[in-house]
Amino acid sequence: MLTEERGDWMLAFLAVLGGALISITVVQNGNLALYLGNIRGTVLVHVVGLLTIVLILLLSRTRFQWNRKTPWYGYLGGVLGVLTVLGSNASFAALGVSVSLALMLLGQALMGVAVDQFGLFGAQKRPFQPAHLISFGLLFGGILVMLLS
Amino acid sequence: MMLFIAALVGANTVLCRYMNAIYARHNGLPMSTLANYVTGLCTALLALLIMGDPSAVQPVGALTFRTVTMFLGGAVGVGLVQILVYITPRLPAFLSTILVFISQLGTGLLFDYWLTGAFSPGKIAGGVLVMLGLWHYAWVWKRAQEDTPVDRKA
After folding, report:
1. Does chain B have fewer CB atoms within 10 Å around its N or its C terminus?
2. Which of residues 10-49 of A touch B (CB under 8 A)?
């Protein structure tokens, strides 16, 4: 229903699982930051993550490979991830949780719409449909109610 | 200025997923996760070197569930990165963004209820509205796809 591919509901489930894991890591990393500080905590999170993925790759005997044709911006995922952590910490401190979350959602939604509209980064083009205004109204109304109550 | 930065952080999370997905397209999902942590660690070390960390290190003290699990955020993050990289090219960007966000909020609510017993009918009502919005968004898409084949890039 969601895409042309099969297993759409499995993808939706994975997205929901991803959101749940974000909440769990936010609590874990927040606790770590209380003891070590924000930046030291971020360093340790990445050390543990790196050791974990290396262990998984070794145990699963995955062949280490590197395609030289990978575009330069493909390497920016980790960099942007750290900038996200530092930026959200600063935002939570300056604006509080609710306002920060609302603004971050706005940024995410606008970027998501732009990716769908223009097919950025090789994504499938999914131009805006006027009927989506109703969806947006329900989504943002619901999120606003959740954040304010 | 801070308002703009907060919105930029939001846009950045979507960008981050797509950059990892681009790496995965060329090198596979496991290598994309590895690259994410290598470049992330380098960036975090650089930030520590340039900005330092003003907070003092606190002693961890007794080993409890909280103090033990806080060291495992990076390990859970590996699963998280793999899931997000996997779904990113397969779901519409807006839909995956909202699904992830609303699940994040919902899990936060469950944590609050579990830890403090706090329950908010307003948040449940908001959640129902969001579910309706998601269903409507997917329904409109389904109809649009049935009417006209969408342009798919290689």
Report:
1. C
2. 11-12, 14-29, 31-40, 42-49
Q: Which residue has the tokens 């909440």?
A: A23
Judged by CB atoms closer than 8 Å, whether chains meet at A138 and B16 is answered as: no
DSSP H/E element including A140? helix A132-148
Q: How far apart are CA A149 and CA B4, in angstroms?
A: 24
In angstroms, the CA A106 to CA A42 distance is: 25
B79 burial type by CB count under 10 A (0-12 exposed, 13-18 middle, 19+ buried): middle
Instruction: Specify the DSSP class assigned to residue A5.
Output: S
Q: Tell me the one-letter amino acid at A110.
A: L
Rounded (to 5) percent helix, strand, coil in chain A: 80, 0, 20
Are A82 and B13 a contacting pair at CB < 8 A? no
Within 10 angstroms of residue B146's Cβ, the number of other Cβ atoms is: 8
Structural element, H or E, at residue A113:
helix A97-118
| Distance, CA of A149 to CA of A146 (rounded, Å) | 6
**Per-residue pLDDT of chain B in tens (154 residues, 90 and over written 9):** 888 898 899 999 999 999 999 999 999 999 999 999 999 999 999 999 999 988 888 888 888 888 899 999 999 999 999 999 999 999 889 889 889 988 988 888 887 788 777 777 888 888 888 889 888 888 888 788 777 655 544 3
Token couple for A76: 């920016």
Task: Answer yes or no: is the ipTM higher than 0.90.
Answer: no
Rounded to whole angstroms, the Cα distance separating B11 from A83 reads 12
Residues 6 or more apart from A95 whose CB is under 8 A from it?
Answer: A103, B2, B3, B6
Per CB-CB distance under 8 Å, the chain A contacts of B123 are 145-146, 149
Q: Inspect the interface and report whether the beta carbons of B14 and A115 lie closer than 8 Å.
A: yes
User: CB distance B57–A121 less than 8 Å?
Assistant: no
A87 touching chain B per CB within 8 A: yes
